[in-house]
Design goal:
heterodimer, A: mainly alpha, two-stranded antiparallel sheet, B: 327 residues, alpha/beta, D-Maltodextrin-Binding Protein, domain 2, 2 domains, globular
């Protein structure tokens, strides 16, 4: 229990009134910057760095703790309210969160997100305190082959988000892959799809894609039907942020599941928080389907907000562990904080705990304090933020447009980014118009490059020997789980279908039209009618059910 | 009650807006002012990158002694700094701006072929260097550089080396060393990672046989016994660093990851002098000396004809290496 004593000592030096003021300032600034679309916590930390130079180390760390987590809390606020996630880690939480907001439960969604971020951050930070050296070992067990297995695993685990219509889902996935491919190819230096513009050499920022697709696309979509759909004129909001007991009972397992996804990902320097947040989202979606939860995908499920938010902050928590114990900045924010630590003669790395133990424990204590302050702050703010939605629509959406443009421009002061944003916004509009799901685009943008680069790295190192892909325990386990899951779900599917066809034979009789009646009645996933088989059948079946949904909840789609 | 909360919300939005505007203003700043009243440092990299750190250390040094009243850092990330270079090349005659530059940019210009080059701006000064080191995991069979080179010669393809992105110092040095020991650089198996951190884990996890990395990034791992340094790219041994150079082990390879500053094209002789004076002043500050030590940068101050000659040589050498690597 050495760590506990040291941590308590850390709290001792961190908990002074003036330090609490610093953490409050840090938390407020971090949240404010995080709320703006496109401006993530890395920008906040970079801007605050000079200020903290004049402070003593403890005060500086505690302020950083506020900013670091504050940015993450803030990111999800904009995502939930306006569908403009502040950075890529908040994308997955925005899907269900924004649905909840549209359903008038914005405050509740924000509160769920805040508590989720708190739970995730808290558990992750605790793990870092006690198991930092172990976490480091885990990080070094991952090579390219393992990353590739992970990416494949994630792709299939998240594939449920494309299940509404296989063809449209795959189409959206394809669009995402194409967008992700723009830029200079890392392993070979080949220039792809840049139209000869050097500004595109680094690819299209995922923030630009997200803000364009979600925020601007939404604005155009609303603008396109502003006088046709009176129900969309205003979002109601009952200002209650309080989580009822039933809410907590629903959200708690989701928070913990999300945290479990997030913790391992903070340590491995690939994909950042996007992969675990999407994995958490995909899992909740799958569970909701099994449970017959109708809120998910329509009015917004509290679980769908809780899990990704917890995952995102859990990643941030263990990322801090990786930074401290390994000297390994797994994100841009961490890289800046690395510079900040060096400022105080603290060199993160394997020798850190020996060399400057006192400062480290103060920092870890600061992280805990920052989390507590933030969750209190954000629970209070949830109601206030939710009031944003009372602003008349035309002002609100004009505001979103301005903020989106501003945020994207601030990333790299590039006007080309604004044009790209506009084009992607139009793409988002068209995709909404023709009921293409948007989530697969973003998933492809996140996972596509990861899978590609790591596969090629693995094969380059092994000089083309494919067996390297299954040469370590981690890869074997991942693929085994994957195969097992596929077999189980195939068996379930088969049984399901047999029951269905038995029922259909006994009831309305067979024929190609029987499918639409069947799937409409069940309310669940569109199951192929008994006649045709394979994926084309699923696509056919989703046609009629898709239009049925369209009239049912126009505008609530992503 | 509700109107009060609404006011609060409105205030919140206003505050957020102000922060946003301030950020954008900081990013887009400029105007007609002298360098003494207002100076803009362009870091052609994202916040968190090496040049960003260099720019912000410079900013602090200038501020610490009030050398210029208002110093701002602007980040223009992209393509190894060539996006920033392209933008800076358009700022004809701007007397209140300097851009961070360095060896990485020289490599990126060669690689990107984007129509801009170092000739389009006015390189001013070289300020701080650090060096790359060839490292192997602690359990590697290679104890010395000779061991490694022997194995590398026998099987260039099977001896994978990880390092920073293509065209980085790590990559160029790998090509240079290969060439000097008689291996065709285009046969080397270089695994590019986008950042030092990622490359580091690839070494620790034993993915690649060896790694080429900035010495400062791996110094602690070497001290902790997780990695073994075989050689460093400095000309002479660095004070306090117990790693032999390539040169002393008979490999004629020496390369610095240098950082410096450039002025906008077409600045007047007078303005150029003023900017150099500012650099000269902030270089002397306590903050800068402290920064050099903290970041383990070697002071490599060089300007005028000497710097020009160095840069010319650097560019032609980089051209050769990039060609040799078959890029």
């Amino acid at each position: 229990m050495d760590q506990l004593n040291l941590l308590l000592e850390g709290f001792g030096s961190a908990l002074t009134p003036i330090n609490l003021l610093w953490v409050l300032i840090g938390a407020l600034l971090g949240t404010a910057v995080g709320v703006l679309p496109g401006l993530g916590s890395s920008m906040a930390v970079a801007l605050l760095l000079p200020i903290t130079f004049t402070l003593d180390p403890t005060a500086a760390f505690i302020m950083f703790a506020g900013v670091y987590f504050g940015g993450l809390f803030g990111d999800s606020t904009a995502g939930i309210l306006l569908n403009t996630p502040g950075n890529s880690a908040a994308i997955a939480g925005s899907f269900e969160g924004h649905r909840m907001a549209k359903d008038g439960r914005a405050a509740k969604a924000l509160a769920t997100a805040a508590v989720g971020a708190f739970v995730g951050g808290l558990i992750a930070t605790t793990l870092v305190v006690f198991f930092a050296p172990l976490l480091v070992k885990m990080a070094t067990a991952f090579g390219p082959a393992e990353y590739f297995a992970l990416a494949v695993f994630a792709f299939l685990a998240i594939s449920s988000v494309v299940s509404e219509s296989v063809v449209k889902g795959l189409g959206a996935l394809g669009i995402g892959l194409v967008l992700a491919m723009v830029g200079v190819d890392g392993p070979s230096g080949t220039v792809r799809y840049t139209l000869g513009m050097p500004q595109l050499f680094d690819g299209i920022s995922i923030v630009v894609i997200t803000v364009g697709l979600l925020a601007l696309g939404e604005v155009l979509h609303i603008a396109g039907r502003i006088h046709r759909d009176p129900a969309m004129e205003r979002i109601g909001t009952n200002g209650r942020a309080r989580l009822e007991r039933t809410d907590v009972r629903k959200a708690l397992p989701a928070w913990l599941r999300g945290t479990a996804f997030g913790v391992p990902f903070g340590i491995i320097p690939a994909g950042g928080a996007e992969v675990p947040t999407f994995l958490a989202y995909g899992t909740e979606k799958r569970l909701a389907k099994r449970r017959g939860d109708k809120e998910f995908g329509s009015t917004g499920s509290i679980r769908g907000v809780a899990a990704p938010e917890a995952a995102g902050n859990a990643t941030a928590g263990t990322a801090m562990g990786a930074l401290l114990a390994l000297g390994l900045p797994t994100s841009a924010t961490a890289a800046i904080m690395l510079a900040a630590f060096q400022q105080y003669g603290m060199q993160p790395g394997p020798l850190l705990f020996e060399r400057s133990g006192e400062l480290v424990w103060t920092l870890l204590a600061s992280l805990f304090i920052g989390l507590v302050v933030l969750v209190i702050l954000n629970m209070q703010f949830a109601v206030v933020w939710a009031k944003l939605l009372l602003i008349p629509r035309h002002y609100l959406y004009a505001g979103i447009t301005v903020l989106s443009m501003l945020g994207v421009y601030a990333i790299s002061s590039s006007t080309l980014d604004l044009w790209v944003l506009l084009v992607i916004g139009l793409l988002g509009f068209v995709m909404r118009r023709y009921q293409f799901p948007l989530a697969p685009v973003l998933i492809a943008v996140v996972l596509g490059p990861l899978a590609e680069t790591e596969l090629r790295r693995a094969l380059t190192v092994s000089e083309g020997d494919v067996s390297v892909l299954v040469s370590s325990p981690v890869t074997v386990i991942l693929y085994s789980v994957l195969v097992l899951a596929l077999v189980v779900s195939a068996l379930q599917h088969l049984r399901h279908r047999r029951q269905k066809s038995a029922a259909a034979l006994g009831g309305t009789g067979e024929g190609p039209d029987g499918g639409s009646g069947g799937s409409g009645g069940s309310g669940g996933e569109p199951v192929a009618p008994s006649g045709p088989t394979g994926s084309t059948a699923a696509a056919d079946a989703s046609g009629p059910s898709g239009t049925a949904r369209e009239t049912e909840k126009m505008g609530t789609r992503l | 009650m509700s109107s009060r909360t609404f006011t609060k919300a409105a205030l919140g939005v206003a505050a957020a807006g102000v922060v946003g505007l301030a950020l954008v203003n900081a990013a887009a700043g400029g105007g007609e002012a002298t360098a003494r009243s207002k100076l803009v440092l362009m870091a052609p990299a994202a916040p968190g990158g090496g040049w960003d750190g260099f720019a912000r250390e410079s900013q602090q040094a200038i501020k610490s002694d009030g050398i210029s009243n208002n110093v701002q850092v602007v980040n223009v990330p992209g393509a190894g700094g060539t996006i920033g270079l392209g933008q800076f090349a358009q700022m004809e005659g701007r007397s209140d701006m300097m851009m961070v530059t360095g060896g990485v940019m020289v490599g990126a210009v060669e690689l990107a072929d984007s129509g801009v080059s170092m000739e389009d701006v006015e390189p001013l000064v070289r300020l701080a260097d650090d060096y790359a080191a060839l490292v192997v995991p602690a359990d590697s069979p290679y104890e010395t550089l000779d061991d490694f080179i022997e194995a590398w010669k026998q099987d260039p393809g099977g001896t994978s080396i990880s390092g920073g992105s293509l065209g980085s110092i790590d990559h160029l040095l790998t090509g240079l060393v290969a060439e000097k020991v008689g291996i065709d650089p285009s046969q080397t198996n270089y695994i590019a990672y986008s950042g030092g951190g990622e490359a580091l884990t690839s070494m620790l996890s034993g993915t690649t046989v060896a790694g080429m990395s900035g010495y400062n990034e791996v110094a602690d791992q070497i001290e902790a016994g997780n990695l073994r340094a075989l050689a460093i790219s400095s000309k002479e041994r660095l004070p306090g660093v117990d790693v032999p150079t390539f040169l002393e082990q008979g490999v004629d390879a020496e390369m610095a990851n240098w950082r410096g500053l450039a002025a906008a094209p077409g600045v007047s002789e007078e303005d150029r002098g003023e900017l150099l004076e500012i650099v000269e002043e902030y270089r002397q500050t306590e903050h800068w000396q402290d920064a050099l030590e903290r970041n383990s940068w070697t002071d490599s101050y060089m300007t005028g004809d000497e710097f020009e000659a160095f840069l010319d040589e650097e560019i032609s050498r980089t051209e050769d290496i990039v060609e040799g690597l078959g890029l």
